[in-house]
Every structure is written in C-alpha cells, then in structure tokens.
Amino acid sequence: MVELTDKQIDFIREQIAANGVKIEDLQFNLLDHICCVIENEMSEGEDFKLFFDKVFPCFFRYHLSEIQEETELLLTFKHFYAMKKTVNITGISVVLLMLLFTILKLFHLPGASVTLIVEVVLFSFLFLPLMIVLKFKDDGAIINKLVLSGGLVLGIISAIGILAKLMHWPFATPFMIIGISGFTFVYVPLYFFTNYRKPELKFNTLVNSVLMMSVGGLLFSLFSLHGTRLTESNKAVYTFLLQESIRSASSSTNTISAANREKARVNLDELQTVKIQLLASKLTIDKTQILKIGEANAYELISNDALLKDHLNSDAQLKLNKLIANLETELQITLSSTAKPINWDGYTLKDALQQLTLFQIRCQRQLNDK
Amino acid sequence: MYICLMYSSELLKGTLKTIVLHLLKDHGRMYGYEITQRVKELTNEKIQITEGALYPLLHALEKNEEVQTDVEFIGKRVRKYYTLTPKGNSLAAQKVSELSDFITTLKFLLDLEPKIANG
Question: B3, B20, B33: best mutation site toward chain A, by most A Cβ within 10 Å?
Fold first, then answer.
C-alpha cells in the first residue's frame, strides 16, 4: 500500500476544488476517498500524476461538479417537495377565494373586500413567486426561465395594481399600467419569439400568444388615457377663475342682511348635500362611504367623460338652478358669466362639481366678509 | 444517479438508500470508501457504488438526522465516519422490510417462485 505525501494530498485537494466542488464537507469526503483509491490501487514506483489522471475521470460521468449538484439537489429536495405542495394548495385556495368573492359581491354580502385582499395577496406573494422559484429549478434553457419569470413578475405587479384600484389605495394606476402594458407589449412578444422556433411548440406558442395578447390588450383598453380632456378641464377651471377674479375686483360692496346670511348658510349646506349625492350616485355607493373615503378621493374616481345629466334629471336640474339663484340673490354674486340659469346638459360631472365647488368658495367668502 | 455496473441504473435507483442504511446497521461505524468496498466485496463486484451516488446520499441522510458523523484526522486529510442514529436504525429496518416484501411480490408476479396465497 502506497503512502501519499502531503504535497500529493494538497494537489488532489486543489484538483477537487478546481473541478467545481465547493462544499467543504464534500471536498473532505472526496479527498479521503480518492486518497484511499490511490493508496490501495497504485503500485509502488508508479508515477502519481499519471495514475491520478487515469483514475480521476472514474469519479464522475461528465464533470466532478455534478457530485456537488446532486448533493445540493438531494439536500433541497425536501424544500422542493414542500414548495410544490404549497403551490398546489395556494392555487386551489386562490380559485376558491375568487369564487367566494364573486358570490359575496353579487349578493352584496359582507366580507367581499377581505376575501379579495386575501386572494390577491396569496396569488401575488405566494403562488406566483413560488412558480418563479420552481421554474428556475426545472431543466431547460435559461432564457426561457428568465422570460417566464419576467412574465410572472409583471403578473404580480398587475394583480397588486388591480387590487389597489378596487380598494382605492394609492399608486393603483401606475402599477396597473406598468404591469398590464409590460405583460402585453414586452412579455408576450418575448414569449412568442423564444418559443416559436421550436417545431413541437409552434402551434401552442401561437395560440397562447394570441390569447395573452388579446386579454392584455382588452385590459389595456380599459385604461383612461384622457390626458387631453384633463387639460381642457383644467383650462376651463383656470378661465373661470380668471373671469371670477375680474368680476370680484369690480363687484359692488353692498352689505348682506343677517336674514339673507342665514338663508345662504342653509342653501350652502343644501348645495354640499347635492354634490355628495352626485358623487354617491355616480360611484353607486352611499353617502357615508363618500364621507369615509373623502370627497376629493371620490372625485378622483369619477371618469372624465361621465355626464352630469345622467345623474341629475330635469326636476333635479331645476331644483339646483333654483338653489343657485337663491344663493346669488342672497349673497349678491353670480355663478355664471350670464344672468340666466345654467343649462347643465353639456356638462361632464367633473366640470359641474368643479363649478359648484368654486361657487361654494365664493359664497363662503361673501359670508365671511364683514 | 449512477450506481453501476452489472445491473442497470434503473434497477438500482431507489435501492441505494436501503443498501447503505442496512450496511451501516450491520457494520456500525464506516467511512465512504469503506462502504463502497464492502458492497463491492459482498456482491462479487456486481454492485459498485460510485462516489457521485454515495456522497450526496450520505449528506442527505446526515441532514435528515438519520446518520451522525465523527471526524478523524489521517495526516493532512479528514476522514468522516458515519453511524446510524436511532431514527436511522428504525428507518433501516423499515426500508429493508419494504424492499424484501417488494422482492417477494416481484418474484410472484414474474413467475420466478411460486407464492402461497395469503389466507
């Protein structure tokens, strides 16, 4: 039996590390094993280096690092199995919660919001991230794994954005736009071009791409990109403010009687009630919920093209005009540039609310002036 | 996984754990090279366990607390000896019994040995 020198042992250790085995325990195992093989099988006088080169390839099939890979796989196998199980359970839970949410929402039963939040949280923070991890453990080209993982990340962002939108949380729109646009216009093309080349996947890739692009495109089309309308609305507000500031500078300084002041206060409260009713009517929620989320937030939720006349019938319009006329008389100011009652037919809901709010401010200022 | 050489790896896959556990149960404290040599001897070189199969398994058994290790310094190198824990002991018995039953069933199924039907 040959005895190896320290130098030869160091050489073997270096070879083990250089061939991709990094786990220290495994290095010790292999070092001892290889030394035992050499000590027992090498003849006295035989060249160590030549014998090592002959024997070393017998320890692996393609590369020594496959021993480390196999070790890591077996060590994480339990976790892998647990992850797969978690994905299955989470997936089923998400589907069941979605069904429950649909039923609760349809029948206006309590608990819909909580169900929705739990469902989206499970989907975005457990199911999809685990899918990404498991995908990376699969065999296959790294590019496919990266593309799919990117798609899943965009899915997470979209889901969070949609939840935020439904729950009136901040940053909903940016999340939704980034998630859905990224998915439709970045992920789907990447998916198509990475998979279409494989003949066995050609048909499925085409069908999946068409489906994903269609769904993503439809969701994207729901976005309100009313930048120009917003600009028009802002311009209308600014023009109105300019006109009012000119009118204020030239207005008379008539005094307002106490009786008129009192009536004006009541009418202003009535005007505020009308505004809240309009918001509640458009958002199909009750007035207490408007007060809960805040008037400004409720205003922000209204689409730019919602029309006032859809929420204010002709009787209600007459009543509103009478209310405004009374305030104008009591406080000696005017809402519009003419003395005639406003025809609200062409107004969007947002424009009307802005006008009424500005009128409220002017009325309040008149009331507060001594 | 590559246990070789006389039997196909498909046949031997899944039995390596049972082989190693049983060997450690019978022989107590062993190190890696010793395990491979013992199996080779006992099977007349029909089963030769490769390092790529053995050491990942030993690491997994250690992680599951089915074997415990102690270390000895042989000159400049470190030798790890493996011994079964109580958990490993009962697992060894269970795995051997399971495999034995499986072999009996296979023998009957493949008409290798007549089986008396269970009453």
Answer: B33
For residue A81, is pLDDT > 80? Answer: no
Residues 6+ apart with CB under 8 A from B110: none
Q: What's the token pair of residue A54?
A: 């002959």
ipTM for the whole complex: 0.86
Q: How many CA atoms lie within 13 A of A80 on its CB side?
A: 11
Measured between CB atoms, does B56 come within 8 Å of chain A? Answer: yes
Q: Tokens 């970045």 identify what position?
A: A186
Element (H, E) at B82: strand B77-84
Query: Across residues A176-192, what is the average pLDDT?
Result: 89
**Is pLDDT at B83 greater than 90 in this prediction?**
yes
Q: Which residues of B touch A6 (CB under 8 A)?
A: 75-76
Q: Which residue has the higher pLDDT, A51 or A247?
A: A51
Q: Do A32 and B33 touch (CB under 8 A)?
A: yes
Q: Which residues contact A280 (CB under 8 A, 6 or more apart)?
A: A286, A287, A289, A290
Task: Tell me whether residue A191 is exposed, middle or buried, using C-beta atoms within 10 angstroms of its C-beta: 0 to 12, 13 to 18, 19 or more.
Answer: buried
- State the CB neighbour count (10 A cutoff) for residue B3: 21
**Is the CB of A38 inside 8 Å of chain B's CB atoms?**
no
Nearest CA to CA, how far is A45 from chain B (Å)?
21
| Location of structure tokens 């309040």 | A364
Reduce the DSSP state of residue A1 to 3 states and report it: coil
How many Cβ atoms sit within 10 Å of the Cβ of residue B57? 22
Residue recorded with tokens 């890979």? A69
What average pLDDT does this structure show over A91-111? 90
At position A274, the amino acid (one-letter code) is V
* CA R_g for chain A: 36
Q: What's residue A170's pLDDT?
A: 79
Q: Are B109 and B87 in contact (CB under 8 A)?
A: no
Gap from B23 CA to chain A (nearest CA, Å): 18
Q: What is the pLDDT of residue A260?
A: 86
Angle of CA points A92, A94, A98, to nearest 5°: 120
Task: Look at A32 and B74 and tell me if their CB atoms are within 8 Å.
Answer: yes
